[in-house]
Amino acid sequence: MTEAKALIFEMSNPGRRAYSLPESDVPDKEASEYLPEDMLRQTPADLPEVSELDLIRHYTELSRRNHGIDNGFYPLGSCTMKYNPKIHEDVARYLGFSNIHPYQPEESVQGALQLMYELQRDLAEITGMDRVTLQSAAGAQGEWTGLMMIKAYHESRGDTKRDKVIVPDSAHGTNPASATVAGFQAVTVKSNEEGLVSVASLKEAVGDDTAALMLTNPNTLGLFEREIKEIADIVHEAGGLIYYDGANANAILGQARPGDMGFDVVHLNLHKTFTTPHGGGGPGSGPVGVKDILAPFLPKPVVGKGSRGYYLDDDIPQSIGRIKAYHGNFGMLVRAYTYIRTMGPDGLRRVSEDAVLNANYLMKKLQPYFDVPYQQFCKHEFVLSGNRQKKLGVRTLDMAKRLLDFGVHPPTIYFPLIVDECMMIEPTETESKETLDRFVEGMIQIAREAEDCPEDVQEAPHHTMIKRLDEVTAARKPVLRWTKE
Amino acid sequence: MTFRYLPMTEEDRREMLSELGIESVEELFSDIPESVRFKDRLRVSEPLAEPSLVRHMGRLAGKNASFDRYTSFLGAGAYEHHIPSVVNHVISRSEFYTAYTPYQPEVSQGELQAIFEFQTMICELTGMDVANSSMYDGPTALSEAAGVAAAVSKRKKILVSRAVHPEARAILATQARGLGLGVVEIPCSAGVTDPEELASAADEGTAAVIVQSPNFFGNLEDLSRIEPIAHRHKGLLVVSSHPIALGLIKPPGEYGADIVVGDAQPMGIPVQFGGPHCGFFAVTRKLMRKVPGRIVGQTVDEDGVRGFVLTLQAREQHIRREKATSNICSNQALNALGAAVYMTALGKEGLQEVSRLNLNKAHYAQKRLTQIPGVEPVFEQPFFNEFAVKLSRPASEINKKLLREGMIGGYDLGRDYPELEGSMLLAVTEMRTKEEIEELARVLEGVL
């Protein structure tokens, strides 16, 4: 049995320290000299007291209990867990990028503004849009920003009854959630048996209350919406706009552009397609591209270029306003910019080719052993169903846990919701054929175990530092912080 | 051209295509209609090899006046503090930074435990019961707090002090348009929220009273006077706070705040042109199930060993979709980890010490600078590490002069507060030396 790792608080020992602060070169007075006694803290925050080596050993040990892309294969569908280049981490830490203030005079941050200006331009080119804002901190914030612009657009035309946003049933959960936060009602349309948006259902759903349709293309099943032109026409004819969720943009770089498909607004996840690290859940970055009709509503500020150099343009009279403090997650922009400069036009195109080839190869190799609900070429990801194994008493969750024993992070499971016992697999272009082949071997072994010795799968994982955790009790009797006994 | 991030060889490609029974990769894209295929070549710059790229990026970085070459007195929500060396070493461990959200707890215990510890530290700092795993930044956390207050109280009116960060108020205005909330800005008097104005605006339709302390001007708000006004009609009190100040000042939780938000940036996160920073969000136990974003909870595994999982997920978008408490998905986890390492490094004593250094240096600077003819204090309030001064010449002109002298001056308050035209907000953290303060005084004496 594994021992629990001590919490940093349990390692604390008064008198130890891991900090070094400057000596005070001004008179060192008690806080009460400057602040009223009743505004002062009586009980200090009970932060841990450890030595620097204790600190490093603690976090090093924690890192050993974590699986990242650098540890092994991470085919988590719709998350695009591709390699995060090391040079990005170096460059983002250059003092000229990391140690500058958002309110410095523009003439003192020309390099940063140039980088943002060029990134806006490149992302507009890649998506086929006219203008780009780099403000949003993540995909979900990008969605909300796009929807707020759509709202402002309709209102500017005196068209105030459009309160519905249509989302397919295969959409990411953030789509309907963002619609709600932007003040719309989310309406779900069913996919057809091919896994695509049903044009017939869409026709029934649209009307003069349609503000927008949100679509991921390729969708979360990894399938390209072939009838995209027709879909866009249906929505546009009804007076609505069409939103592109860029979570799956890794499939189409240099191959197809949302702007050419008829989309009016797009967000990209720089932490997916453009390799900025996921950081264990963030920070991300979710730039938003728009067609000219939405440009008047862009959030403030955007970066412009004038006779005196680059500047922050706040003069957007119909802007939806501010959506995030300062200038977006700049550190992430530096990384994405570096990536685009590394790959260039042909490299970006190759990214999507290889990502799509890897996904199709994996799907083909796994097809004899698992149910493949959608039998056609996929794009950068595909879904399997664990239905065949479920009949043997082995759930998709069990197979996911068993994969942990092979040093592989499992695929996204039970999403999209429209596939039973779903496994959504996205290998990305940065994985080699050998890695894919090893994964296939592991999956085949698990499929065999499901038939021959199901308990080996049901009781997995066997080799992780900790076994399956009791999530039900965690939610019923929440313990959300450490407390001193 | 070969690309070092793309391992597929020609041989691999041939084998894989043959496995699929096709001739070319092109066939895999045949489901994209011709009319929307991109047949051009993307007009982005040609690729750069690593040495050229390093040179190019170095040149871009070199065009910026960074704190290592310039002495900065600029704060206004983003602060230059010392970052212990250990912080960068920990967040550079790629087991942390190349991981996704910890959906598979068995292989994510490191991240989950670190965030559980972060949540605990934020609770300690703010005096609250429950904290989440982070928000995009302090200002967006403040808007989310307004959303929570409206949802809990089923009311639509938000009162926000004009002494709250102007960008936070601007984001709140955008958010309010989406959620259909009404925002009323409460005027200030003498550099703090006017309690009488606040009292007359608060009524039974008020979902929340939102204040910031230390406020945008650096002044401490009298929360003991504001709290009863917020609660009189059963609205919520939301306080935006500064984590380093909390080393010395009484935490909002002890005043009865319902939600405490702020930005953890001062704790180990570089200013980096304004982001990524790291919002924190802490509440009373009563509001636990209304919190936006991810929360880590403690549990046990099948053998009874303590472990951690993402919990209370019934609040979140991936489960609740349109009924979620917020649309937030990605947050600022790596920066929350950085802040946790900072708080661990500083510890119980260090946080008080750094807080005291800030207080002492800022007060020394304020006293020194306001002795200069042409520099007047704007307010007579208790303040932490930032203060406003009125200058006899325009702030933008002074800042240009300071830049030439190797200094980044303060924030021009006239940008957001017409009545404070000619006033500048100066931040003095532990990073500023007495010598640098003297240098600032010398330049000001020369131009005023």
UniProtKB/TrEMBL annotation, chain A:
Keyword list, A-Z: Oxidoreductase, Pyridoxal phosphate
* Cofactor(s) this protein requires: pyridoxal 5'-phosphate
Record-level GO cellular component terms? cytosol; glycine cleavage complex
- Domain Aminotransferase class V, residue spans: 160-279
> Which InterPro entries does this one have?
Aminotrans_V_dom, GcvPB, GDC-P_C, GDC_P, PyrdxlP-dep_Trfase, PyrdxlP-dep_Trfase_major, PyrdxlP-dep_Trfase_small
Oxidoreductase in keyword set = yes
Coiled-coil spans are: none
Q: Which reaction does it catalyse?
A: N(6)-[(R)-lipoyl]-L-lysyl-[glycine-cleavage complex H protein] + glycine + H(+) = N(6)-[(R)-S(8)-aminomethyldihydrolipoyl]-L-lysyl-[glycine-cleavage complex H protein] + CO2
Q: What is its EC number?
A: 1.4.4.2
- UniProt GO BP: glycine decarboxylation via glycine cleavage system
Residues with the modification N6-(pyridoxal phosphate)lysine, per the entry, are K272
Q: Which family does it belong to?
A: Belongs to the GcvP family. C-terminal subunit subfamily.
- State the oligomer form and interacting partners: The glycine cleavage system is composed of four proteins: P, T, L and H. In this organism, the P 'protein' is a heterodimer of two subunits.
| UniProt name for this protein | Probable glycine dehydrogenase (decarboxylating) subunit 2
Instruction: Tell me which species this is from.
Output: Paludifilum halophilum
Q: What is the lineage of its organism?
A: Bacteria, Bacillati, Bacillota, Bacilli, Bacillales
What is the gene name?
gcvPB
Automatic annotation (TrEMBL), chain B:
Q: Which UniProt keywords apply?
A: Oxidoreductase
Q: Which residues cross the membrane?
A: none
Tell me the CDD domains matching this sequence. Answer: GDC-P
What family is this? Belongs to the GcvP family. N-terminal subunit subfamily.
Cited function: The glycine cleavage system catalyzes the degradation of glycine. The P protein binds the alpha-amino group of glycine through its pyridoxal phosphate cofactor; CO(2) is released and the remaining methylamine moiety is then transferred to the lipoamide cofactor of the H protein.
Can you say what this protein is called? Probable glycine dehydrogenase (decarboxylating) subunit 1
Taxonomically, the superkingdom here is: Bacteria
Question: What are its E.C. numbers?
Answer: 1.4.4.2
Query: Cross-referenced InterPro entries, in alphabetical order?
Result: GcvPA, GDC-P_N, GDC_P, PyrdxlP-dep_Trfase, PyrdxlP-dep_Trfase_major, PyrdxlP-dep_Trfase_small
